[in-house]
Amino acid sequence: MREKYFSILKRIYLGFRKHSLHALAALFARKNLPYLGSGQDIKKILFIRIDRIGDIVLSTPALKAVKEAYPHSKITVLASPSNSPLVFNNPNIDYIVVYDRRGRLIDRIRVIQKLRESSFDLAIDPYPDYELRTAVISFLSGARKRVGYASYGREVLFTLRAPRIDDNKHFVDITLGVLKPLGIHAGDKAPEVFLAHEERQWARTWLKERGVWGEQIVGIHPGGHYESQRWPPESYADLMDQLQEWKGVALIIFGAPGEEPLIKKICSMVTGEVVTFLEDDIRRFAALLSYCFVFIGNNSGPLHVAAGLGIATISFMGPTNKARWMPIGDIHTVFRMDDLPCIGCNRGYCKIKTHDCMRLITPSMVLEAARGILQVGNSRT
Questions:
Q1: What residues contact residue 184 under an 8 Å CB cut-off, 6+ apart?
Q2: Can you give the pLDDT at residue 235?
């Protein structure tokens, strides 16, 4: 009942906001005319992506498409402190500006001032939902042309509006969809993460020091923002025990510092020593991951980093939107209990307290998928 009232209040607020913003736009009589130019005048482009790790990785096909459409332009990505490292070394990006939405107000104002001083010709806001923040940043950037999704009044802040998109579209397609008013269409939808030679060299040294160099490495990440998105720790431990019996296979379990209790719990249930990487350096994580034969994990940012590196993945999906978030490509395997009546509830917790969407995915199912990727010899035992 509480959720029902919240939903009603939300609809009322969004409807009121939409009409208020349109009224203000009409009051100030600032017309946002469609862009009819050839694109030759587009020299400086701002691309806004200040949300999550996976979001910026899945936006790289759009960045590539923009660069191909405007090859002589300079592209600046406005990113968050956590996701900005994932576009380092990207050849389609010229500059990165970091915006901390949780930072001090004075620091955020300084970032906006820096954007205004850049005199952008075009600002692109691919955020598809109703939140206003990125649309406001686009407007305050001073860009002459601004494109974004129409959603509950956000559209008044843009000069080019993309209509609201179907929620069942993939995130890559949603991000590319905002480019359609510009006449930009992408042929390549594969996300990309680019590593420097020095980063790969560091990873080789790290792996050699831990005795796993030359093995078929399986990278495992059991974390996830919401508990409902995580495969059970007991299932990970069972899987890891059985994988360790395979000849020529080595395991690395990845986690950020905040996930240390979860990693310790899993490792305590696994027979023998487990190589762990518990750091918040996403570039080092990506460098190590680039040497893995397969990545196994929940539907979270690291999964999309693995896909961006071209690594085969095995992932678990429960309450989230499968069509939007599953990795693109034949090398990826997604386990999801599609026949459950509650599947796709999109909750951060299990309302019926069974967590069947994750619990019913068994280690034997995952082992079979891994066997199809790894070149498995005789058992160690």
A1: 65, 66, 69, 176
A2: 96
Cα(285)–Cα(199) distance, integer angstroms: 10
Which segments in the chain show pLDDT lower than 70? 1-4, 27-39, 376-381
CA nearest 243: which of 190, 179, 192, 314? 314
- Residue found by looking up tokens 């005789």 in the block: 378
CA distance 107 to 371: 50
Detail the DSSP E strand segments found in 15-149: 44-49, 74-79, 95-98, 122-125, 145-149
Cα–Cα distance, 258 to 263 (Å, whole number): 10
Whole-model pTM: value is 0.90
| Cα end-to-end span (Å), the chain | 56
Cross-sheet strand order for the sheet of 216-221? 275-278, 249-255, 216-221, 292-298, 312-316, 332-335
Looking at residue 352, its pLDDT comes to 83
Please tell me the chain's helix, strand, coil percentages from 3-state DSSP, rounded to the nearest 5: 40, 15, 45
Question: Sign (positive/negative) of CA torsion 36, 42, 48, 53?
Answer: positive
Neighbours of 181 (CB within 10 A): 18
Helix (H, G, I), strand (E, B) or coil at 78: strand
pLDDT digits (tens, 9 = 90+) for 165-194: 777 899 999 999 999 999 998 888 999 999
- Region for residue 130 given its phi and psi (left: phi exceeds 0; alpha: psi -120 to 50; beta: otherwise): alpha
DSSP 141-207: TT-SEEEEE--TTGGGG-SEEEPP--TTS-HHHHHHHTTGGGT---S---------HHHHHHHHHHH
**Non-local CB neighbours of 98 within 8 Å, separated by 6+ positions:** 78, 79, 80, 81, 84, 111
CA distance 3 to 94: 44
Please report, as a single letter, which amino acid is at residue 10: K
